[in-house]
Predict the structure.
Amino acid sequence: MPIARLFVVVVLAVGTGFGAPQFLDNSALSISLETFPRVPVKVTVVNPGPAVTARIQVAGPAASAVSVQGGGSVQLPAGGNVTVTLVPGPRLRETSGQLVLYAETGVARRELRVVPRHLLLRLWPYLAGGLILVGLLAWLMWRRRRPRVEPAPALKEEEQAPAGFTHSDEPAVTDSLGRAEYAQALALLAHSASPPMVIGVYGEWGIGKTSLLKQVRQVIDDQYGDCAHVWFDPWRHQYDDNPVLPLLHTLVAELGLAKKEQVARTLRTISEVLGSLVLSSTARVNLADVRSSLKEYDEQHFRIRSDRVRLDEYLTDLIAQALAETGKKRLVVFIDDLDRCAGDQVAGLLEALKLHFNRDNCVFFLAVAKEPLLVALGEKYKGLQVDHYLDKIIQFPFEMPRLSAAAFDDYLRSLLPEEIMPTRDLLRIGLPRNPRSIKRFLNVLILQDRIAKARQLSPYDVSTLAAILLIREGDGEFYARLAQDASLLQRIKEDLDTAEEGRQLDWSQLPLQLISRFRDSHRAVPADVGAYIDLVRSAPVPEHSEEESKAVPPVGQPLVAAARGELAEGLAVLAERVERQVGQLLPARGAVLAQDLDMDGRAITLDDLVARWDRGLLVVGASGAGKTVLAARITLRLLEEGGGPVPVFVSLRSLDLSRPGFEMWMTHALVQQYRTPITEALAMVNRQRLIYVLDGLDEVADPADRDKIAQEVVRWHEVTGAKITVTDRNPGPGHPLVVHQDFVKVRVKGVTEQEMSRLLGAWKGAAADAEELAGAPALLANLTDSWLREASAEGRDLVELYADRAMAMLDDGPALREILRDVARHLISRDGTSFDDESREIRNIFRHHGKHGRQVPQSLEELVRAGLLRRLSTNEYQFVHHRLLKHFAEGGSGQ
């Protein structure tokens, strides 16, 4: 492989981190005070890998000037992107810093600068102040002359907004989650344990850590009067030089000791010592200075050691004075939201706890989300096992309990207003057991329910609204499909109604569970939820907690395994599924016919073709000539040979072209078509473990999309050297695949003359008809000698007779005949040749003739076995001959 190509391959395989989220634009972001915040600043994060929860925050001095709207917690969909908005912070000014993106799969950074206003705009506040003053004086003069107007009467009680319209996200002191016994036990531990003691309260964002600590504090107040306590939020002071000083100021302020002279004097002394330590520790001492003046070096470091000893003594005095003044024996310090700080501040506070507060009269509670904390520490201490580092500081780790089923149900019941109560069983299925996420979701549901009623949405059911909101939050991919086809929920119900006992339905788990609940509770499932989708599109999206729901696929261990190359088992499973699905594409009755193949004007066999295929292959031919059959045979032949990359057969018509590029197209095609886990699929594509057989470029409706696919195929081939086959009907001379030197063109003409003579020996038809049939192997494979003799004897059109005899073989012929007629008319009206059994129009045709749910694929399989249709891919079908399409569209075949 050339060096340039090798370099690009390495970048693709390694640089992406197998799907690590990253900023779409990594250049420095400049925010002008001239336009901010009048012009919002948007930042886009792309996620080429699996779905993952991430956090975006501003670090450095700019953190007080700029912040991320909504807190910065985002749910990144698989292969998608999310845009966040930057808003002004409490101290908007000229400064600089970084945007930091934290995720389980990696960390990304982007420089951030806030630049000053134009000089005229800097003077504008003074000019504006003068104008406001003049305006105020004018208003006062006018007001003195204005007649007095009585104030409007207050709103009547029934006109006022109802209480409890939404739920506050503030921490709760009163226990509503069944955790009172935990608060009692932790308070007892704080009172009775032998200090020094640091108690780590671990839990994901929104699980209720702050509420639990407030309840512990309340128990201490009520039952343990000999304990003093203070509450410290380090993220409010994360840009101070030393975290010890703000902690001590908080201690003095909360205990009401700020006016005590002795305490204030000790605190001032500690401030001076801390300042001396900061200056000393930042002074540079190089080796030449040490050699020239060892005495000066020793004096400097002795002073640092001396200051640390003095600091320890003063801290001892301060805490002793604070306890003596309050008449307490023990100090309990609650530290909350440490994981919101940058890595340097996190490490600084933890080190301070270990060095300065390791005392026999202090107990600390440390409430953190562990994973973000470990990420922050990992950024600070490269190469260190940060979990072991944390264990040395926290003596008692406590994991927040997840809500039990009973507590979850009681919590929901306590939050739901009467009009939303019917949705409780659905919410139990779809909501994560995270109190903050529950409240935020319910706030959106309550708001949208009121809007729906105000708009007089009819028919309206709050349960349907809840189901769609749950799907939007828990299964983004299915929600995107539902937004395109509003009948999907009805389709799921039909499949449930008609499924054989014990059969696993091929639907996403969350919508399947929700619709199953609709059926069990005898709720009606709307045939079209378009009005609900329109309503939900404008609904606010609740922030997600770190583990938003079970619908988010796990990304840790599978991703690590994929990165290590542990793909053998996954590739073996993929090969089995490819073989099973591709085998269904071959003719249903009779053997595969010998195909007439032409390469560079010379006839070629399938064996020669596979042997000579080195890089790229372009298969061309008329509609029905057998391009898909040849592609399927190539795939199966490569599977038989084995020992190398696995061939995958993909219908180009089914690609999701909204995703970015060939890599994501193929990754999600493997997920959708072969049910490959997305982490494995991404690794297979990136590590060049696949051969691509891409069928039906001519079936892609939009010419621009066809060009886009061709260009991406060429790009991927040039970058990775992957072997790729593409089938197309009749590409023009300037087509990217035609002009590319690596792609060999093979034309499929139909079946060979020998096969034609053998098959049509009993038929006495016109030569022109025989030539046309030669290009239709799918039809020829299903002909019988008796049909050929009957057509010859009666002088009937062979295709029409074929249709009549095939229909006569069907058990439910009349209904299927009408379905084929309507499908054929639909295709001709759309100038199409194939159809997708998942499309709404096709489903409506079947539904109109009494076929729904699982009956649709069963009927299509029956038509394939009868030789009237052929399968192009998992859900895509086509009439076996264009004359059959026309025949049924005109009202054939038979009664």
In short: DSSP finds 36 helices and 24 strands in the chain. The chain has a mean pLDDT of 75. The two ends are 63 Å apart (CA to CA). Residues 378 and 386 are 6 Å apart (CA to CA).
